[in-house]
Specification:
2 copies of one chain form a homodimer.
Chain A (H helix, E strand, L loop, with lengths): L3 H9 L15 E3 L5 E11 L10 H19 L2 E11 L4 H17 L3 E9 L3 E11 L14 E5 L4 H9 L7 H12 L5 H7 L5 E4 L4 H12 L2 E5 L16 H9 L6 E5 L4 H11 L3 E8 L3 E5 L5 E2 L11
Parallel strand pairs in A: 3-4, 8-11
Antiparallel strand pairs in A: 2-5, 3-5, 6-9, 6-10, 7-9, 8-10, 11-12
Helix pairs in contact in A: 2-3, 2-6, 4-5, 6-9
């Protein structure tokens, strides 16, 4: 069986673009850009929890990095460097080859250098840490939302949750809907360009990994504000629109995670600039409500009446 | 059961000292010191592989950070920021409390900020990533060793391997020896001050995590040089000295990992400066051999005859 060092060399050593010293020493070395702050985030993905053990390793390689790129997007940071730690039940070369291909494909798309990591034997576990740069003082924090800000969401919500619900047999989808929704679950597209464009425009941002209501609530809590969200304004997945009378479908929309769209707030005076970003990126951006003073999140129906919200989010130990 | 967010708040949110934004947003924010390079390293520890599932969580908290601090030491970097990702089979609060205590105790000792992380449910897995700073161009790389450099080792070697061999019943130790060796295995002391002091003096460095011969070989390979190591000069653990005729004892000395001492090379002209550092830090530093041109590592006995080396290191998939 090839050694750890062989595996690292074979699959995880690629030329870097903006790194002084990459994989192969006690630490990597990099030179941060003067005047920039460093944004640092990490995500751990566990088999049976965040993915199925038999999932396509190539898609898993994509997703492991995509969810971290999404955190950079939510800060308005430009992703630059990443480390990858892997615990593997065995040194399955086919799996490693596929995983590395998926990982490096998206790394190249976003010009991110893999600078180090660790490989060990154990129950399948992927831990990625990412570092990005953002102009000093300009990062999009959760705590910046202000009363009268508009609340925005990118893309459409619910595709990933629908795909997962289908795989778990909680919802039945037509084959064409499955085919359309699965990529959102397996190969999400991080909104990096959107995050960068929102620097200086948005007051706050978060990525939707735990579900819209849960993630928006994090903004409200961090900012000490309340929100009114118009349910009919929500950009639901086209596969959800016709079935929003079903509780399970509403849950996908409001509390489904894993879409990795951005939720952000910006003053109404910047409305046109946000719409211009939408056109430039050919990415739907939808105003779904307003930040208010006070506390709590009110979901309003078409008549302006408050709706009951069910499951508010996704907790890893619940 | 408390939620993930509650757990993070309760056990892993502490004031930071040199961080703009710590735990609680999509990413942490920090401002690198102008003129410094960033050294980045990560280690993943798996139950049953790097520690026993029943190990004292407090000591595990210490060790998870210590092994990463040791990587900073090996680069000559000053550790500054760390992230921690945990997969836990269940939210065992006693375990988390102990782990956090051990982790923050050593974090405080070395003035390292915990700036973020992830908590999830899964087979016990600890992944730590550390970032440190080193003056631009001055990091201690593995690739800098030059012919005629002296090869040095800090502290004593073999205590941790002896303790492990005893726990695994491969070697029998007297109770007082067990008591003296176990701390090396469970609560190793990273040689951070030594690494910092060697900047500008040493040509190359590595920390001894996989065993002296294996780790020194990494320096030789990266630097394209050979080495002669004098076996009688090796600073063996006092519990090994009397039994170096035993193969198992020699293996602890030459191929035992986990001591987290530094192995480094420096030109003979800096010999006195290295000795002065030893006195200042009250840490034994021992010259064990010389770098030569060519390839390979020769181990010499008291008569200058080449000795056979058995197991050269520790491979995570071997």
């Amino acid at each position: 069986m090839p050694s750890e060092f062989d595996l690292i060399r074979r699959y995880f050593t690629r030329p870097t673009r903006h790194t002084l010293l990459g994989v192969g020493d006690d630490a990597a070395l990099l030179r941060p850009t003067p005047g920039m702050e460093l944004a640092v985030s990490t995500d751990m993905l566990v088999a049976g929890k965040h993915f199925f053990p038999g999932d396509d390793p190539r898609k898993l390689g994509h997703k492991a990095l995509a969810v971290n790129l999404s955190d950079m997007a939510a800060m308005g940071a430009t992703p630059r460097w990443v480390t990858l730690s892997l615990a593997l039940p065995d040194a399955d070369e086919d799996w490693l080859k596929g995983f590395a291909e998926g990982f490096f494909e998206i790394a190249q798309t976003y010009s991110v250098d893999l600078i180090g990591g660790d490989t060990t034997c154990g129950p399948l576990n992927l831990c990625v840490q990412i570092m990005g740069e953002v102009p000093a003082g300009m990062a999009l924090r959760r705590s910046g939302a202000k009363p009268d800000d508009e609340i925005w969401v990118s893309g459409h919500l619910g595709d990933a949750a629908l795909a997962l619900a289908h795989l778990q047999r909680r919802i039945e989808l037509a084959p064409e809907a499955v085919a359309a929704c699965l990529p959102a679950l397996h190969t999400p597209v991080p909104r990096v360009a959107l995050g960068e464009a929102l620097v200086g425009i948005a007051h706050s941002a978060i990525d939707i990994s735990d579900g819209l209501l849960a993630d928006l609530s994090h903004i409200l809590e961090a900012s000490g504000v309340a929100a009114e969200v118009r349910f009919p304004a929500l950009p639901a997945s086209i596969f959800l629109v016709a079935r929003l009378h079903e509780e399970a479908a509403r849950t996908c929309l409001l509390a489904g995670g894993d879409d990795y769209e951005l939720c952000f707030t910006a003053p109404p005076s910047r409305h046109e600039e946000v719409m211009a970003i939408s056109r430039e990126l050919t990415l739907p951006l939808t105003a779904i409500g307003m930040i208010r003073s006070g506390t709590g999140l009110r979901l309003l129906d078409a008549a302006g009446q408050e709706m009951k919200t069910g499951a508010m989010g996704f907790d890893h130990f619940a």
